[in-house]
Write a structure and sequence with these properties.
The protein has about 210 residues and is an alpha/beta fold. It has one domain: Rossmann fold (3-Layer(aba) Sandwich), CATH 3.40.50.150. It is built from six helices and nine strands; from the N terminus they run ααββαβαβαββαβββ. The strands form two sheets. It has a seven-stranded mixed sheet. β8 and β9 form a beta hairpin. The longest helix is centred in the middle third of the chain and has 13 residues. The termini are far apart.
Length: about 210
């Protein structure tokens, strides 16, 4: 998986590769979806949510340029797989999830892997984690209808980087966003498709 899906597709950040080698991806799947453990595609994790393909996890993580002293906000805990990867790279990870059973399962998985620098919250991820802000990096793992400016301007540190998929439900663009004072400077990375970001600065819940 690491060689074929990540390194051969252009991800060469040694810290990201090491983090992905260190986390057993198969621990984050439902029992009836285990055949998808290392497949080059997203896979269901229940509650109409998915775990991203390994390449997308590596790409998003690499674009964040996480340093070992960074504090990272993750919006959309999901299975907890990406949370675990982030925890190997950053000093502290704060992860918010709106689906309680997913959050509880992710917490148990990371605990079983002896990961202690990840913090979890149940709620609307688009509101972030105000009392822990500012964050050096923000990762959003669900598609937003537009750039969540209020969140990024209030909780992303000046000079910080966010990575977020933005656009309609079936035609999103993965974006790297840098905060420079009151300005948010965005760069397109690639086309993508994520589940919808539900919340105050996202899509309305159906």
């Amino acid at each position: 998986m690491i060689r074929q899906q990540i390194i051969e597709r252009g991800i060469h950040d040694e810290r990201v590769i090491a983090a992905m080698r260190a986390i057993p991806r198969d621990r984050f799947f439902l029992p009836d979806a285990r055949e998808s453990d290392f497949a080059d595609r997203a896979a269901p994790i229940g509650h109409e949510q998915t775990i991203s393909q390994p390449y997308m996890v590596a790409l998003m993580t690499a674009r964040l340029q996480i340093a070992s002293n960074h504090k990272v906000l993750e919006i959309g805990t999901g299975s907890g797989y990406h949370t675990a990867i982030l925890s190997k790279l950053a000093a502290e990870v704060y992860s918010v999830e709106r689906i309680k059973p997913l959050l509880d399962a992710a917490f148990e998985r990371l605990l079983s892997l002896d990961i202690r620098n990840a913090h979890f919250r149940f709620g609307d991820g688009t509101r972030g984690w105000p009392e822990a802000a500012p964050f050096d990096r923000i990762l959003i793992t669900a598609g937003a209808p537009q750039i969540p400016e209020a969140l990024l301007k209030s909780q992303l540190a000046d000079g910080g980087i966010a990575v977020v998929p933005v656009g309609p439900a079936d035609d999103q663009m993965l974006m790297e966003i840098h905060r420079a004072g009151d300005n948010l400077v965005s760069t397109d990375i690639c086309a993508c498709r994520f589940v919808k970001l539900i919340g105050e600065e996202g899509w309305a819940e159906q």
